[in-house]
Write a structure and sequence with these properties.
- The complex is a heterodimer of chains A (276) and B (290).
- Chain A contains 13 helices and no strands.
- By secondary structure, chain A is an all-alpha fold.
- With 290 residues, chain B is an all-alpha fold.
- Chain B has a single domain (46-285), classed as MetI-like (MetI-like fold, Orthogonal Bundle), CATH 1.10.3720.
- Helices cover 73% and strands 0% of the residues of chain B.
- In chain B, helix 12 packs antiparallel against helix 13.
- The mean pLDDT of chain B is 90.
- Classes of the chains: A mainly alpha (276), B mainly alpha (290).
- Chains A and B meet through helix 1, helix 2, helix 4, helix 5 and helix 6 of A and helix 1, helix 3, helix 4, helix 5 and helix 6 of B.
Amino acid sequence: MARRGTAKRPFAYLILIILAAYAVVPMVIFLLASLKTPGEISQSPLSLPGKFRWENFATAWSDADMGRGLGNSALIAVSTGAGVAVIAGCAAYALTRLALPKPGLFIMYLLVASSLPIQLFLVPLLSMWTKIGLYDNRFGLIVIYWAIYSPFATLLIRTFLLAVPKDYEAAARLDGAGEITVFTRIVFPLIWPGVLTAALVAGLQAYNEFLLAVTFIQDSTKLPASVALYSFQQGLSPNWALVSAAGLIMVLPVLVLFIVLNRRFVEGYTSSGMTG
Amino acid sequence: MRGAQLKAWLFMAPLVAVNLLVIAGPGLMSVYYSFTDWDGLNSPGLVGFANYTALFGDADFLRALLHNLLWTAFFLVVPMSLGLLGAFLLTRIKRFQLVFRVLYFVPYVIATVVSATIWRQILSPTSGIGPALSDLGIPWLKDVNFLGDGDIALGTVAFVNNWQWWGFLVVIFLASMQSIEPSLYEAARMDGANTWREFWHITLPAIRPTFMFLSLMTVIWSFLVFDYIYILTQGGPAGSTDVLSTVMYRMAFEQQQAGYASAIGVILALISAATVGGYLYLRRRLKWEM
């Protein structure tokens, strides 16, 4: 096998580094801006700050109400992830293990439902949610996320279930175990990585989601971080130092998760992108 | 076995319930409302196909449709090329492959609102990259108002969206390219093929299912684009970045023309359905494997 170090393909590395700069430089500018004064930003966005202004984060935290935003987002993301895991886990179990008539038809429906655009049902949904008191209500938003993220999660968990041999469960049933016991004691321990990935993907999508959040939540005390940040950066000349700090506050939890769970993250995220 | 079926239905019930409530029910209502003069509040009256015929005489709608088509073309060319280029070069190197892959993927993880904010600042005509470069003696971008100039605003928003998107394509293409048999490349090298010919005659045909699938997703998703445009320009200046979704949003929630907006929603769903249908048809006709 020939040695292939950086010296071997200088041209490939050059292009890869240019591409990496395209991805990274904007984030660096953003990071620097969060530690500067607005004056320093407009003078030279690329230079280091004269003095690292960590207080920007404290100011952004209170001015943009990011603390409350993150709290709301955490509540929404965790409830979405947990709810989707339960809803999709049960459905995938029914599809693969129980006597559901015509499972193929259900799978077809799931594929169609997960590719229907939000734009199709947005307007009547808002009017309906207003009528039943779910508009401007965090739970109302969570229910919508359950509905739109469950079809993909069901298909994902189904692939994990299909890989588990049915013999284990048959043995447990012969011993007189009920359906719930079979599921929690035998099946779940074998498929939990799939369930966790599905929950993680749904939670992160809910955390980053914008269109539904901005449409369905109005009250400033209930806004998730995405919409709080959106309102904070509006206007012709916002304070970019504080806006950058607020943005970083929103990204930081996700980046930490990304670093801790890199593998699961990339796999789950890419497969969710594959189904839209 | 009635009991067993009942049990299966019980496990399926939560999914079916939320789906009917949020997606199927309102989706069907949208189809109905698209044939009415609904304002979003009062009871609607049927108007037949009036909304649909009005749409095709509506300059705002047609311009937005054109913008969606331009958007589709941009996303089929620019991010797909960057994704193929990045992934192919990554298969050619041994060191730092993981580092590059992670760096390319990070923008995809960042929330849309945040990446839009990053670029709003960088592109700001007063405190962004333009004035900064002109201080360094590079004056070309000094007076460019990227998001405020109707001639370039749409391209600018597409550029910003591409920044977040292309790294995702690298990761997908790379996974697909890594499953290609190495012996294929060895045979090509025996025949004296250069890198470009290897890419064109071996890599590209081998990843065709992935390539076609991502093209399909790009088309569907380009017609539904909303977030970046709403956050960066709200469709302006003067409609120069309007797409179908932003027109629909304005009609529904600002101009109280919910029936008209529903018709746009139905058209968006039909475009998605037609794209998927065309893809499935082609796949069957040409016998592509997935």
